[in-house]
Known about the structure:
- Strands 1-2-3-4 form a four-stranded mixed sheet, sandwiched between helices.
- The protein has a single domain, classed as VSR Endonuclease (Endonuclease, Chain A, 3-Layer(aba) Sandwich).
- By secondary structure, it is an alpha+beta fold.
- The chain has helices at about 1-20, 25-35, 40-50, 95-110, 120-125, 125-140, and strands spanning about 60-65, 70-75, 80-85, 110-115.
- Helices cover about 50% and strands about 15% of the residues.
- A hairpin with a 4-residue loop joins β2 (about 70-75) and β3.
Amino acid sequence: MQRFLYFYQMVFIRRTREYLLHFGAGKASFDLARSLRKPMTEAEKVLWNELKNRKLDGLKFRRQHPVHYYVADFYCHEKRLIIEVDGGIHNNPDVREHDENRSAELDRLGIKVIRFTNEQVLTALSDVIQEIKKWTINSPAQPSPSPSGEGAGG
């Protein structure tokens, strides 16, 4: 009986960890994120090269990561930070309003969203990196379960 309870507890911990990492994202968000990982814009490729493999201050960034009902271009769970790289379509008033609503909803979850245009990333990458660093330095690290799913006691 004790083994069953231990196993049940471990499943619960794993499920809790996944909920915290993805904020309850559903299957549709995961499917969309998976499809978006293949076709990257040039600006996303350039920025991803600077963020991947913990290159930016040792922080782990994920690409096309499902969060709540949305898919983030880049997400750092430790800092609860989303980085969006926006193309020209985001100048459309309807799309801009959607972006603002999305950012407000994510802000209520304790996630900060910062946005850069494709042009900013491609022409002023060092400024973009400095802006991201400013946000990561001023943002306290968020407690989260270990990536392996094991707690301090296990």
